[in-house]
Fold each of these.
Amino acid sequence: MAVNSPCIDVCNLDGKTRLCVGCFRTLEEIRGWMKMTDHRRHQLISDRSRRQAKLMRERWTIEGRLSGDNISNNPPSYAPVSVLSA
């Protein structure tokens, strides 16, 4: 059974983690999706929650340092670093 792409057409890379803020894949993984085995695709999709948490931690830390406040009640926002082409 084919594994569908996790892309949600948000396609912006986070500057620190280099993960797409929409699908949580690296640029190399996005580019190589069509050539990946279904097993590898399942691995990437299964790793989504860990990658999302990593992105959130990095964004939270960076924004805390920028604002001078290490504790914030506001979730981090996502600023696009680059736009990927399909």
Note: Helices lie at 27-32, 38-46, 48-67.
Amino acid sequence: MWHHDHGFFPGFPIVFFTLLIGFLIFRIVMFRRYGSAWGYGYRVGAWKHAEGSLDAAVILKKRLASGEIDEAEYRRLLDIIKE
């Protein structure tokens, strides 16, 4: 019945190596993009850009430190950002 040397599926090596190469390419892309081979890690500071309000709070803090705005204006704008 099964008298040929191709095993259970003649195209198995082609499918296997295609999937293996695709998986390795996926891991390389995820590592380069996110700093982790699975895409769950973050580069330093990348999480800050995930939430725009955190970036805005940092900008406000810098403006307060440089004297562009006073403390009352800082608190008012921070309350607006947090909404």
Note: The helical segments are 12-34, 46-50, 52-66, 71-82.
Amino acid sequence: MQNVVDQERHPDGYNDRNPDVRDPDFKYDNYGNLIADRDKEIKEIVYNHLNLPVKIIFENGGEIDYIYACPPFGGMPWELNLEKKYVTAVR
């Protein structure tokens, strides 16, 4: 998928921040991972060797970093927000 076109134009419909269909809204790497989403203002998504996201970089300069833990921590990912200085489990 490269673009979404919402013909309805209802205010509760899809928020297409890049309506020019000649310019793709979504970009993917060679493994099929989403690496950019212009409609969500995601500039870049960085993946680790397991194809798990480790960093999301937004167009406004904000970032979300993910840390993955092994058992005994349950093997669940952790979200590290350096701006707000917190770490939370992502379920």
Note: Residues 26-89 form one domain.
